[in-house]
Amino acid sequence: MPQEFVLTCLLAINKEWAAEFEKKHPGYLKAKSNKNPQTPHVLYIGCSDSRVPESVVLNAMPGEIFVHRNIANQFRLDDDSALSVLAFAVESLRVDHIIVAGHTGCGGVQTALDTAHPPPPLHAQMDTMSVDILRGKISADIG
Ligand SMILES: [Zn+2]
């Protein structure tokens, strides 16, 4: 499917959605526009899986949930994106709740489990340490 066609379709769908939403909730989107600050009470950290969009599964309105999503709803201290979302949510938006939400059948979690390597057996580690001690690579500081 040509990229321009996809973009045109998505923009048309968005326009239709906004018109329908305005009929059901007159003035809501204008009140939540960029002119007014957002005031969500929840930071939601969830999976990128297209089957679990937080606003759909939680039946939330625009502006109610501040979101960070990635594969398998990870939160890592070396992830600048996740850290900036958390800092903004807590310090600026002053959210009341932080939810880390997993979901059934997460492909990201399953892939992590499938590709994880168990640590070597303890006796193998001890054998390596014994060799290192014999070779003088490990020494103890006994004062
Ligand atoms: Zn997932």
Task: Explain what you see.
The protein has 143 residues and is of the alpha/beta class. The chain has 2 domains: 35 residues; 80 residues, Beta-carbonic Anhydrase, Chain A, CATH 3.40.1050.10. It is 45% helix and 12% strand. The chain has 6 helices and 3 strands, in the order ααβαβαβαα. Strands 2-1-3 form a 3-stranded parallel β-sheet, covered by helices on one side. Helix 3 links the parallel strand 1 and strand 2. The site of zinc ion (ZN) has 7 residues, from helix 5. The site of zinc ion has 7 residues, from helix 5. It catalyses: hydrogencarbonate + H(+) = CO2 + H2O.
Short structural description:
It is an enzyme of class 4 (lyase). With 143 residues, the chain is an alpha/beta fold. It is 45% helix and 12% strand.
Q: What structural class do helix, strand and pairing data support?
A: alpha/beta
Instruction: Output the CATH topology of the largest domain.
Output: Beta-carbonic Anhydrase, Chain A
**Biggest sheet overview:** 3 strands, parallel
Number of strands: 3
The averaged pLDDT comes out at: 89
List the helices and strands and how they pair.
Layout lengths: L2 H22 L3 H4 L10 E6 L6 H4 L7 E6 L9 H13 L4 E5 L5 H9 L6 H13 L9
Parallel strand pairs: 1-2, 1-3
The structure holds zinc ion.
Record keyword descriptors for this entry.
143 residues; alpha/beta; Beta-carbonic Anhydrase, Chain A; three-stranded parallel sheet; 3 strands; binds zinc ion; Carbonic_anhydrase; carbonate dehydratase activity; EC 4.2.1.1
